[in-house]
Hints:
Shape: elongated
CATH superfamily of the largest domain: Pseudouridine synthase I, catalytic domain, N-terminal subdomain
Bound molecules: uracil
Structural class: alpha+beta
Helix content: 10-25%
CATH class of the largest domain: Alpha Beta
Number of helices: 6
Amino acid sequence: MRLNRYLARAGIASRRGADDVIAAGRVTVNGSPVTELGTVVDPERDRVEVDGKPVTLPESLTYIALNKPCGHVVTMSDPQGRPIATDLIPDAAPGIVPVGRLDAATDGLLLLTNDGELAYRVTHPSFELDKVYDVVALGVLAPAERAALETGVELDGRKTAPARVEILSTEHHLTRARITIHEGRKRQVRRMFEAVGHPVKALTRVRVGPVELGNLRPGAWRRLTEGEVGALRTALGLTAP
Ligand code: URA
């Protein structure tokens, strides 16, 4: 396996980022510094270290879908003592980390994996993986506001990438909509709707790429099927694990 792939699999960096780590002279193989980008390692035999610390591949790759309930935070530890999303998956597998972020107030699909390369690609906007959210927003969204969400609104001085917005229903001064984005900026959907004057009351992530939340109840989790893992990897330009 090429060394950059090994490092990416281990969650050190993206494959290109791993090249930088190698070029910077931070990697040793069996104790010898390696800066050659095309270096190949045998994961069974070779000892790889970055900055003097051993780097190993997960024994097996695990992919989990969790319906994160509202109120749970996506973090490793919370100073405010709020419940932590990963605690809902005891003993799933070592090294499992949440893929990207989901606000405490948002519920819905959170992927977790120990596949560092896939996690990186799901969250990086250049891979353009769809993230789909069901939104309940205050007020009635005018056609021009919907168009603005789709073409992009300014957040932190930078326009959001094109999005798709489908109006599901409008009732009692509330709009139910489904928005598809492929970026993952902080509180992005909430801030996009705020930017067009319609604060979000409830937000649920219902799909990440080919993986659907389906009828998983809040707090419940399941392993992705082989078909889902294959479809996710294909969508991200990766081959079979
Ligand atoms: N957008 C948000 O505003 N919050 C989330 O949790 C995810 C996307």
